[in-house]
Amino acid sequence: MTLPPLPEEDHHCESCGLRYDDLTTSAALGLIRSHPTRYRRRLQHLPIDVLRRRPAPGVWSPLEYACHVRDVYDVYDTRVRRTLTEHEPVLEPMRNDERAEQRAYNQQPLAAVLLDLEHKADRFAALTSEISEPQWSRSAVRLPQERRTIRWMVRQAAHEGLHHLHDIGVGTTDKAVLFDVDGVLVDSYPAYRRIWSRWADHRNLDPDLVWSHTHGRRPVDTIQEIAPHLDAAAEYRLIREFMAHETDNFPVYPDAATVLHRLQNRRWGVVTSGRTPTVLHRLRAGGLPDPPVLVDSSQVRRGKPDPEGYLRAAQLLDVPAPDCLVIEDAPAGVAAARTAGMTVIALRTTHADDELAAAHRRADTLGDAFPLITDWLDRTHP
User: Fold this and answer.
1) pTM here?
2) Could you tell me which residues come within 8 angstroms of residue 6 by beta carbon, excluding any fewer than 6 positions away?
3) Which of 79, 138, 213, 378 has the fewest CB atoms below 10 angstroms from its CB?
């Protein structure tokens, strides 16, 4: 039997929208850890005939997909361990359809499958969470010329779980909370005000006018609108130089850790106009967890107020846009979320009520918003 080729290291799945280059290893681990709960929610209430039914010839049943994902985590656990201890080991193919038939996936008891899926996912996540930076580039081979790194293996395993949730169908009551970063999780207002004022003075521009066009937007978009005669890429490099001088002046809000901890068993993610390395550095410095999904400015063609970033995060979390709640602080972000068809709670950390009128609800701080978040999550329908 001819084996299908493995996805490339920079694979982009057209079906579920996942781009491997966009998926940090920490975010991949977050997805893997979330999958047992998500599969349980998706499958535990299905009628037995639906659970075991193949919707079309050659298409697996929901139960078979769950068995496959369980085995993926088991197989990739072995593959990663071998790659950590051997020099470019040759990997045995999974032969998915043969395995499904030989192990009678469709006859296995759901409760046992879900329990085993949880065990395998936890074991694999625990292994990969201990991998050091140099080890991520260690590689193995399946077929000649099919050399893949440990980083790819973890992304591939996360993709398998996410993709097959998509295959089972989106008929779920799961919801997601999406956070902006600046003004929501990180108190960046004073530092950014200094940065943009310095840039405005450097280019003989009105600092107040410049500042009014920055909130919730990508820096390049602000530059192109305020100073279209300048080279936006070059000016962005200058702004990043100014930013480097601010060093640690980007503290997280005091209530951010508590709110995210309380949402640890829920789907959540971040949509930011910043860049992933910078955002992760600031979140980690403040003791916040890495987001399961992080959509940054480099992953979208158009920044806020365009809805692309929020729609992309919903796709990665496998949640319909109307089942997403967005926490924002800026009018551009509120507009992006509303255009995406999502519910919005706006924080008064950087703007007044009249500027946030398009939001569904408003709160002074993230901590004050938390009862509104839990109330929205607990409703049957948004």
Assistant:
1) 0.56
2) 142, 143, 146, 148, 156
3) 378
Whole-angstrom Cα distance, residue 333 to residue 274?
13
CB atoms within 10 A of CB 141: 14
Strand-pair partners of 325: 177, 343
Instruction: Give CA–CA dist 30/49, Å, rounded.
Output: 32
* Residues tagged active-site: 180, 182
Distance (Å, rounded) from C-alpha 237 to C-alpha 273? 15
3-state secondary structure (DSSP) of residue 273:
coil
How many residues are there in the chain?
A: 382
DSSP code per residue over 31-71: HHHHHHHHHHHHHTTS-HHHHT--SSTT---HHHHHHHHHH
- The Cα 191–Cα 278 span in angstroms is 14
**Res 301: pLDDT:** 85
| pLDDT tens-place string over residues 141-193 | 988 788 999 999 999 999 999 889 888 864 444 789 999 998 899 887 777 67
- Read off the amino acid at residue 193: R
